[in-house]
Amino acid sequence: MAVRVLLVDDQPLLRTGFRMILEAEQDIAVVGEAGDGLQALDQVRALQPDVVLMDIRMPRMDGVEATRRITGPERDGPAKVLVLTTFDLDEYVVEALRAGASGFLLKDAPANELVQAIRVVAAGEAMLAPSITRRLLDKYASHLPSGEEPMPDTLRTLTERELEVLKLVARGLSNAEIAADLFVSETTVKTHVGHVLTKLGLRDRVQAAVYAYESGLVRPGAQ
């Protein structure tokens, strides 16, 4: 079955461009559009999309609040949110990830990256672009812990290997890259990642990466 996508952006030309790209794919169907966060909430309830392609800066209700309502405990359906950002202008991307977004994508990303991101998020994975993630977290380092705070009790539930894996996830490494770094199989890495998410009560790798920084386990700019 085709992935059902809702386009949310206050610029009609951008929505048209995204629609043209996505509708060229046999496994993706654009089921609707919205020009702001409030319209997005209505469309999510009415159309039950699988993925919401969400702009951040919009009138009436921004993408952060809309994301929080779409993915929160009172959610009306299974929709996942993929945030669109211009990066240099959006100070709220980290907030959107905390709010429940499954990833983010630059607005000027190539068409193939947009299509792949939709598929990844629809499959229940997180779209975590390593270079952009590190730049974002470094950019907002002043809002994150200094690393001098004591380790949260929740982190103490993780094994040493699980802590290693969490640190590498926070650096933006893929499962294959983590496997190569730790000299284990990808299957083993997937198992560790699953344990980390379960023990910390997190939904996906994006939330794990943000949590690692917020908890002070990883410090912005550290290797």
Overview of the structural elements:
The chain is α/β, with parallel strands linked by helices and 223 residues long. The chain has two domains: 3-138, Response regulator (Rossmann fold); 153-215, Arc Repressor Mutant, subunit A. It is 47% helix and 12% strand. It contains ten helices and five strands, in the order E-H-E-H-E-H-E-H-E-H-H-H-H-H-H. It has a five-stranded parallel sheet with strand order 2-1-3-4-5, with helices on both faces. Helix 2 (37-47) runs parallel beside helix 3, helix 7 crosses helix 10 and helix 8 (175-182) packs across helix 9. The mean pLDDT is 83.
Radius of gyration: 17 Å
Q: For the largest beta sheet, what order do the strands appear in spatially?
A: 2-1-3-4-5
- Beta-strand portion reads 5-15%
Q: Characterize the biggest β-sheet.
A: 5 strands, parallel
Determine the mean pLDDT.
83
Number of domains: 2
Q: Briefly, what CATH class of the largest domain?
A: Alpha Beta
Task: Briefly note the CATH topology name of the largest domain.
Answer: Rossmann fold
Number of separate helices: 10
Number of strands: 5
- CATH-derived architecture of the largest domain: 3-Layer(aba) Sandwich
Coarse shape: globular
Instruction: Give the name of the CATH superfamily of the largest domain.
Output: Response regulator
Helix content: 40-55%
Low-confidence stretches: none
**N-end to C-end Cα span:** 41 Å
